[in-house]
Design a protein that fits this description.
The complex is a heterotrimer of chains A (761), B (107) and C (176). With 761 residues, chain A is mainly alpha-helical. Chain A contains 30 helices and 2 strands. Chain A has a two-stranded antiparallel ribbon. In chain A, strand 1 and strand 2 form a beta hairpin. With 176 residues, chain C is mainly α. The chains are: A mainly alpha (761), B mainly alpha (107), C mainly alpha (176). Chains B and C meet through helix 2, helix 3 and helix 4 of B and helix 1, helix 2, helix 3, helix 4 and helix 5 of C.
C-alpha cells in the first residue's frame, strides 16, 4: 500500500489540474466565471500540503527523512542499440519537497485570492484562473518528481503555462513578443538540460536521481571526469533558462507584460525558483569545475541585473531585475556549495518577492494601470497597508537584520567567502565581491523605489499627456478593466485596495520576518530550515582526489571514493545526534563530509559567518545611505548625476544592450546563414536542375515527332471506338455518384443472398 | 449461457462492431449529399475493415492482419489527402460540395 | 472482479465507437459530425488495444486523429462558412439507404455468426499476446519489405497529387 503522505501528495498534484480542466471548459457557464472553484481547489491542495508539511517537518523533524514511491510508466523492453528502456514515474517526499510544496501552494492560493480582486472584470477572467491551475499543477509536479524524465516533462509544462500567462493580454504586441521571447529563450536552456539528461541516461539507463547517484558513487561512470562536468553544466543550462541567469536572462524582464499576479506567482516566487530547485536536486553530481561555472554565472548575474535595476523607471521592471539578481544569489550559493543557504534564500525570497510584486500590483491597480515610478509618489498616506507590507518586504530584500532576507543572504555570502578562500583566492574572490556589490545596489535601488513610489509629492500630473509610446503600458488600461476606468481621465482618485488583495500582502509580509525561520535574528543556521535541509554529501571526486587518482583508471578512483563514502554513511547514521553535538559546540552544523573539498568549504563558511554579517551590514548601510542621500536629502541630484555619467547611465538603462547584442549576433547570424543557403539553392541547385531540364527538352523535341504521327494515330483510333460505345452506354448514366453506389450495394447484397443461400443449404 | 457469451469477449464481438461501423459508413456514403460527410463515411468503412483484419490476426496468431491494417491506415491517409484536394477543386469549380449537383458527367 | 472489468471496459468502448459513429452519420451539422468522428477514432483505437495491437492503436490515434481528422476539418472550413445554413447537409435516397444498410448489416452479421457457429472461424490455438511492436518491425523489414516501399511511393505520389490538385490555379482564375 502507498503511504498516506504519498496519497496526500498525489491529491496536491491533481487538485490544481482538476481546477484547470473544469475552468478551461466551463468557465463561461459558471457563476463568477468559476473563480471560487480555482480558489477552492487550490486552497484544498494547500490544506493537503500543509498536512504533509506538518507531518514531515514538525512531527518527524529529521534531516534524513525520505519517502519514495514509483511505478513503471513506459516499458519498451530491450530496444536494440539502446538497451533496456524503461521510464518510471514516481514521487519523492523529503524535507525540501514538503517545504516547497507548502510554499508553492500557499503562494498560489494567495495569488488566486489576490486575482479575484486584481483581475476582476477582465473578459477572460475564468481562463486566467484555469491557467493558474495548470501552472500550479506543473510546478507541484516539478517539486514532487523523483526522476529526470518527469521533471523534464513538468519543466516544459511550466514553460507552457508561463507562455500562456505572459501572453494573457495577447492583443498587445509587446505581450505577444514577450511570450515568444520567453518561450524561445527557455527552449535554448531546455535543450542543454535534455542533453545533460541523455548523457546520464546513456551511462545508467535510468532517469531516477537516486539510482544515478548510487551509480556515480560506485564509480560506474565509464567516461572521463570531463563528461561528468559537461553533464552538470548542461543540466545547469536548464536552470539558466528557467531561472533567467546570464546569458539567458533577457526573457524575464519582458515577461512582466503578463498580469501582475502572474509576475508574483511565476516570475518571482515559484517557476523561476524551479531552476534553483533543480540544481539542488542534481547538486550531488556536480563536479567542482561545474560548481565553479555555476558560481561565476550566478555572481555575474546578480551583479549585472542589480546595475540595470538602478535606472529602470517601470516599477515592475525594477522588481524583475531584482528577481534576476536574487536568483543570481541563489545560483551563486549553489555554485559555492552552500546548498542549504541557497534553498533557504529561495524560500525567503519567494515570500518577500511575492509580497513585493503583489504590492506593486496593488499600486498599479490603485493608480489605474500606471506603472511608471516617475509619475507616482506620495502614496503612503493613501495606501497605508500596501506601504507597510511593501516596506517590510523591501527591507527583507535589502537584507536588513531582523528580516528573513538577512538570514539567507548572509548565509550565501558567508558561503561565497568560504568558497573563495578554499579555492585559493585570486580570481575566486570575484564571486563574493560581486555578491557584496550587488547587495549595495539592492539596498540602493529598493530605497529608490520605495521613496519614488510612496514619499514626496504626487507626480501624477507631471506625466506628459501623449506618452503612450513610451512604455506601452498605457494601452493596458483600455482593455478589460473598464469598470475601474472612471469617466474623467485627468485625475484619478487613488484608493486602498479591497481586503482580498490586502490579506495576501499582510500574510506574506509576516512571513518575511526572521522569527518564522530562526530564533536568532543574526544566524539562520539555528533555524529549523537549515537543520532540516542540509547540504548532501557530493558523490563525485573533488579536484584533489581526481588529481591523486589520475594515475589510476577511473573506476578504481571511483572505488576509492566509494570506500570513503561508506565512512560517511557511518557518520551520518545519527545525523540528528550529530547536529546537536555540533550546535552545542557552537560552530558547525550539519554532517561532516568525507570529501575534503566539501568539508573545507563547510568549515570556512562557518568561519566566515561573522565576517559576512559585518560586511553585508556595511553594504546595506552604504546602499540605503546612498538612497537617502540621493532621494531623501537630495544632496546629489539624480538627474544631474545621470547626465554627468551619461554613457554608464545609458549602458545600465538599456540593460547592458544585451537585446541589441543578441539581435546583432545570433538573430542576424542565423538570418545571414539562411540567406546564404537561399542563394546556394537559387543559383547552384537550380542551375543543375535547369541544365538537366534543357537536355531533356532537346530529347523531347525529337520524341515529339514520333509521337505525333505514330502514337496519335493509334490513340485516335481507340478513342473513336470508345466514343461509339460510350454513346450507347451513356443512357444509363445519371451522373450522380450515389445512385451508382446504391446499385453497387444492391449487387453486393445479391452476392450475399447467394452466399447465405449456399450456407443454409 | 447468454451472459457467459456476453462476458467472454471473443471474435464475434469485434466482428459485430465492425459490421455496424461498416453499415453506418455505407449509409453515410449512400445518402449524404455533402462530399465531406461522404469522406467521413469512407473513413468509417476503412476502420471497420481494419477491425476485421486485427480481429482475425489476433485470433489466428499471425502477423498478416496487423501488417495489412498498418498499410490500410497509411493508404487511408493518402486517400484522405487526395480526396480532400478533389473536394476543394470541386468546390472551386462548382461553388458547392453537394455531390448530387455535381453531375456534369451526365452531359 | 477482473473477469468483469475487462468486458465492462470493452462494452464501454464499443458503445462509444458505435454511438459516436451513428452520430457522425445522422448529425445534420458537419462540424458535429467531424468532432464525433474523433470519438469514433479513439474508440476504435481502444478496441485495437483489446486486439493486442497497441502499435496500430497508437498509429490510429496519430494518423487518424492527428492527420485525417484535421484534414477533414480543414475541408469543412474551406468549403463552408461556419455560420452559414449550408453547413447542414441534405440527404438523398433515404429510404433505399436505410433498407440497404439494414440488409447489409444483417447479412454481414448472419454470415459471421453462421460461419463461426459452423466451426469455420474458431479462434486458433496461437493467439497474439502482449505487444507486437517488435514483430511489426521484423515483418516490415523482411516479408513486407516490398509493400512497405510501395506504400511509401504511394504516399509520395498522393502528396504530390494532392498538392497539385489543391493548389491555387492562376491561369484558371484568369479565365473567370
Amino acid at each position: 500500500m502507498m503511504h498516506s503522505l504519498i496519497q496526500l501528495s498525489i491529491a496536491v498534484l491533481l487538485l490544481p489540474l482538476l481546477s484547470f480542466v473544469v475552468l478551461i471548459f466551463f468557465n463561461r457557464r459558471l457563476p463568477r466565471m468559476g473563480d471560487f472553484i480555482g480558489l477552492g481547489l487550490v486552497g484544498t491542495a494547500f490544506g493537503c500540503a500543509l498536512t504533509i508539511f506538518w507531518q514531515v517537518v514538525v512531527q518527524h523533524y529529521d534531516p534524513a527523512f525520505r519517502l519514495a514511491w514509483d511505478f513503471t510508466w513506459l516499458d519498451f523492453g530491450n530496444v536494440p542499440g539502446v538497451g533496456p528502456l524503461q521510464v518510471k514515474m514516481g514521487i519523492v517526499i523529503d524535507n525540501l519537497t514538503a517545504i516547497m510544496l507548502a510554499m508553492v501552494t500557499l503562494i498560489s492560493t494567495l495569488v488566486h485570492l489576490y486575482s479575484t480582486g486584481y483581475m476582476h472584470g477582465d473578459p477572460k477572467y475564468g481562463r486566467f484562473f484555469a491557467y493558474l491551475g495548470i501552472f500550479t499543477f506543473s510546478m507541484i509536479g516539478i517539486v514532487l518528481s523523483d526522476n529526470l524524465f518527469s521533471i523534464y516533462m513538468f519543466w516544459e509544462l511550466v514553460g507552457l503555462s508561463s507562455y500562456l500567462l505572459i501572453g494573457f493580454y495577447f492583443y498587445k504586441d509587446s505581450a505577444a513578443d514577450a511570450q515568444k521571447k520567453a518561450f524561445l529563450t527557455n527552449r535554448v536552456g531546455d535543450i542543454g538540460m535534455w542533453l545533460g539528461i541523455l548523457i546520464l541516461y546513456s551511462q545508467y539507463h535510468t532517469f531516477g536521481y537516486q539510482e544515478i547517484y548510487e551509480h556515480i558513487k560506485n564509480g560506474d561512470f565509464h567516461m572521463s571526469q570531463a563528461w561528468l562536468t559537461a553533464a552538470g553544466v548542461l543540466l545547469f543550462m536548464g536552470c539558466v533558462g528557467k531561472s533567467a541567469q546570464f546569458p539567458l536572462h533577457v526573457w524575464l524582464p519582458d515577461a512582466m507584460e503578463g498580469p501582475t499576479p502572474v509576475s508574483a506567482l511565476i516570475h518571482a516566487a515559484t517557476m523561476v525558483a524551479a531552476g534553483v530547485y533543480f540544481v539542488a536536486r542534481i547538486f550531488v553530481l556536480l563536479t567542482p569545475e561545474a560548481q565553479q561555472v555555476i558560481a561565476f554565472v550566478g555572481a555575474f548575474t546578480a551583479f549585472m541585473s542589480a546595475t540595470i535595476a538602478i535606472t529602470q523607471h517601470d516599477i515592475k521592471r525594477v522588481l524583475a531585475y531584482s528577481t534576476v539578481s536574487q536568483l543570481g544569489y541563489m545560483v551563486l550559493g549553489m555554485g559555492v556549495g552552500s546548498y542549504s543557504a541557497a534553498l533557504f534564500h529561495l524560500l525567503t525570497h519567494a515570500f518577500f518577492k511575492a509580497c513585493l510584486f503583489l504590492g506593486s500590483g496593488a499600486i498599479i491597480h490603485a493608480m489605474h494601470h500606471e506603472q511608471d515610478m516617475r509619475w507616482m509618489g506620495g502614496l503612503y498616506k493613501k495606501m497605508p497597508w500596501t506601504f507597510v507590507t511593501f516596506s517590510i518586504a523591501t527591507l527583507a530584500l535589502a537584507g536588513l537584520p531582523l528580516t528573513s532576507g538577512f538570514l539567507s543572504k548572509d548565509a550565501i555570502l558567508a558561503g561565497a567567502l568560504g568558497f573563495a578562500q578554499v579555492e585559493g583566492g585570486g580570481i575566486y574572490y570575484l564571486v563574493p565581491a560581486l555578491g557584496f556589490a550587488a547587495a549595495v545596489m539592492t539596498a540602493f535601488y529598493m530605497g529608490r523605489q520605495v521613496w519614488l513610489v510612496f514619499f514626496g509629492e504626487s507626480r501624477t500630473h507631471l506625466k506628459p499627456a501623449e506618452d503612450h509610446g513610451h512604455d506601452a503600458h498605457a494601452a493596458h488600461a483600455s482593455h478589460g478593466h473598464d469598470d475601474h476606468g472612471h469617466e474623467d481621465h485627468g485625475h484619478h482618485e487613488v484608493h486602498e485596495v479591497p481586503w482580498n488583495m490586502r490579506f495576501p500582502l499582510v500574510l506574506l509580509a509576516t512571513l518575511s520576518v526572521f522569527i518564522v525561520f530562526s530564533p536568532d535574528p543574526l544566524d539562520g543556521g539555528k533555524g529549523w530550515f537549515m537543520h532540516l535541509v542540509q547540504t548532501p554529501a557530493t558523490v563525485v571526486a573533488s579536484t584533489e582526489a581526481a588529481h591523486e587518482g589520475a594515475n589510476l583508471s577511473v573506476p578504481e578512483a571511483g572505488k576509492l571514493l566509494a570506500e570513503a563514502h561508506t565512512d560517511t554513511q557511518h557518520v551520518e547514521t545519527a545525523p540528528a545526534a550529530h547536529a546537536e553535538a555540533a550546535s552545542t559546540e557552537g560552530e558547525g552544523h550539519g554532517p561532516v563530509y568525507a570529501d575534503p573539498r566539501q568539508a573545507e568549504i563547510a568549515h570556512m563558511t562557518h568561519a566566515n559567518h561573522w565576517n559576512a554579517i559585518k560586511l553585508s551590514s556595511l553594504m546595506l548601510l552604504a546602499g540605503i545611505g546612498m538612497a537617502f542621500i540621493v532621494y531623501v536629502f537630495r544632496i546629489i541630484d539624480p538627474d544631474k548625476t545621470a547626465q554627468n555619467i551619461r554613457p554608464l547611465y545609458l549602458y545600465s538603462f538599456n540593460k547592458w544592450y544585451w537585446d541589441e547584442i543578441y539581435d546583432a549576433t545570433i538573430i542576424k547570424g542565423s538570418m545571414l546563414i539562411s540567406k546564404i543557403l537561399a542563394w546556394f539553392d537559387a543559383n547552384i541547385v537550380d542551375g543543375i536542375v535547369n541544365g538537366v531540364a534543357t537536355i531533356f527538352r532537346k530529347f523531347a523535341f525529337f520524341n515529339g515527332g514520333v509521337d505525333k504521327y505514330v502514337v496519335d494515330g493509334m490513340v485516335n483510333f481507340t478513342a473513336f471506338t470508345v466514343q461509339t460505345t460510350g454513346a450507347v452506354l451513356r443512357k444509363i448514366q445519371t451522373g450522380k455518384v450515389q445512385t451508382y453506389l446504391v446499385m453497387v450495394v444492391v449487387a453486393v447484397l445479391g452476392y450475399f443472398a447467394f452466399y447465405i443461400a449456399q450456407l443454409i443449404k | 449461457m447468454l451472459t457467459e457469451q456476453l462476458l467472454s469477449i471473443g471474435l464475434n464481438h469485434f466482428l459485430t462492431i465492425s459490421a455496424i461501423l461498416f453499415g453506418l459508413g455505407m449509409f453515410a456514403v449512400m445518402t449524404r449529399k455533402n462530399a465531406i460527410v461522404i469522406l467521413m463515411g469512407v473513413e468509417l468503412i476503412l476502420n471497420a475493415a481494419n477491425i476485421n483484419f486485427l480481429t482475425f490476426s489476433k485470433y489466428n496468431g499471425g502477423m498478416d492482419g496487423v501488417m495489412f491494417s498498418l498499410f490500410v491506415i497509411v493508404l487511408a491517409a493518402a486517400e484522405a489527402a487526395v480526396a480532400l484536394a478533389i473536394v476543394i477543386n470541386i468546390f472551386k469549380t462548382f461553388k458547392t460540395v453537394d455531390v448530387s449537383r455535381v453531375d456534369t458527367m451526365k452531359e | 472482479m477482473n473477469q468483469l472489468t475487462i468486458p465492462i471496459i470493452f462494452y464501454i468502448f464499443a458503445a462509444v465507437t458505435v454511438l459516436s459513429a451513428a452520430f457522425v452519420v445522422f448529425s445534420k451539422n458537419i462540424i458535429y459530425s467531424a468532432f464525433s468522428l474523433l470519438f469514433t477514432f479513439f474508440g476504435v483505437a481502444a478496441l485495437y488495444v483489446f486486439l493486442s495491437a497497441d502499435f496500430i492503436a497508437v498509429t490510429q490515434v496519430v494518423v487518424y486523429v492527428g492527420g485525417i481528422l484535421v484534414l477533414l476539418l480543414f475541408g469543412v472550413m474551406f468549403t463552408n462558412t461556419i455560420m452559414q445554413t449550408e453547413l447542414k447537409a441534405d440527404v438523398i435516397h433515404v429510404v433505399p439507404g436505410v433498407l440497404l444498410t439494414l440488409l447489409l448489416i444483417g447479412g454481414l452479421l448472419f454470415a459471421f455468426y453462421n460461419a463461426s457457429a459452423a466451426g469455420g472461424w474458431m479462434p486458433g490455438m496461437m493467439q497474439l499476446q502482449g505487444s507486437v511492436v517488435e514483430r511489426i518491425g521484423f515483418e516490415t523489414m523482411s516479408r513486407y519489405m516490398l509493400p512497405f516501399e510501395m506504400v511509401s511511393i504511394v504516399l509520395l505520389v498522393a502528396l504530390l497529387g494532392a498538392a497539385f490538385l489543391a493548389r491555387y490555379d492562376k491561369a484558371h482564375k484568369k479565365e473567370h
